[in-house]
Amino acid sequence: MKKIAVKNVNGNIEEVDLIKAFEITDISKKFVILSKNETNSEGLCKVYVSEVIETSPGIYELIGILDDALWDRVKKAMKEMVES
After folding, report:
1. Rounded distance, CA 9 to CA 42, Å?
2. Can you give the three-state secondary structure of 23-45, one letter per residue?
């Protein structure tokens, strides 16, 4: 799995696993699914999903998904990836 460095909300750089990067082309937005190799109380791996934008060449910023309609589109895209 590919490792990438991201800046967390505290401003610290941390290394995470890039599980999948994808684009929803009809809305021209890119997203990533990341893992910090954490597990929840049921032993399942936690994943993080975020919009990603290129702020300058080769520099990317993670943007939280706060809009419910956008989150619905992202969940639909992820479901389609799993089913294909």
Report:
1. 26
2. EEHHHCEEEEEEECCCECCCCCE
